[in-house]
Amino acid sequence: MVVCLCRQVTEGQIRSAIDDGACCMRDLNKKLGVATQCGKCGIYTRQLLRQHGLKPRAHPAS
């Protein structure tokens, strides 16, 4: 299913990015470009992060 219409990013791509270490919206913005244009996909993308037990806005200190 396409989640981000602006960038043609699928749910599978988002889940794969999370499995590969993306742990917040900032990571997914950088890696896939989600929620960087119209932003409508941000709600569902945040839900996917929560389903993986992550906090969408949190970004661990490097």
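^ that was protein a. below is b, sequence first then the tokens
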Amino acid sequence: MFPSSLPVPHLPEPDAIPALRWGILGPGWIAEHFAKALQQAGRQKLVAVAGRNGEKTRAFADKWAIPQAMTSLDELLAVRDLDAVYIATPHNHHFPDGLKALQAGKHVLIEKPLALNAAEGAQLKAEARRQKVLCMEAMWCDFTPKYSVLRQLLADGALGELHTLIADHGEFFTPDHRIFNADLAGGTMLDLGSYLIAFSMMTGGAPTFIQASGQPAKSGVNGQASMLLQHKSGMHSVLNTTLFSNTPGRAVIAGSEATIVLEGQFYAPGGFVMAASQDNRMLRWQEPDNRYAQLHHEADHFAWCVGQGITDSPVRSLDTSLLMLTTMDEVRRQLGIVFNEEK
């Protein structure tokens, strides 16, 4: 049945979010947005940052008023009273860095993707269980108000039987961008493609059938991938990602009772429209297009889990992250994509 109004986002109560003491590993582009979001939200405390380039790391620390800067993960893990580590290193460092931080008994938030493949992800899960600490993939869109509303609509069956999901995520990158670097596990799947697969799985569950076609970039990494996923419910997901050009970045979820259209980049903050299939009823979700300012939601949820003594996120569990990696493993198998670390 078409709802009379949209649900209210389910977010943790501010009083239930402890102020964790965070260390950042990898003072790069996404870490800049993470630090800024945490500083603006004001709940979490950044106490240390580590990066291979000492000058860059010190400048990062000064910019964001972080008291300690160092040049190695070992130094970061030796910081007293450190509660959590945010890992924002290149993709092929997520697994070794995350594993070392978990072995040190720290709660760990790892930038997406959790690891290069499902086998690495399973090792991270096993170590987190051994240490009885929280390990979570920073798929930041999952923790935003917009995605909370979408999950509730899907759980309530407001769209009826789901038949089709169509989504794209393409961006133009210059040839010198690290996304074209095979030594950094470059290519479109781990960067842009992970948003598409995560979105399709949130909507329809794990795929039961996968068909993929791709195109390499001149550097040898995968430059474009098109995927058809079929889910247990019968829903089809039609997904495309490319590094060669900018695409609209929209998504459509079509059901028997209603259709949701997310304009712009579907994973980012912004609005969507839900329209009934048989009449003119329509609901709109509207919010500021404040993009990476909403990164604080993943940190807030992470801190809430720690405060509740929860060692696996109820919003993005490690099993969910592993299913996404398993799906990407199969897409890569079909496209012949092998990372250097897997050879």
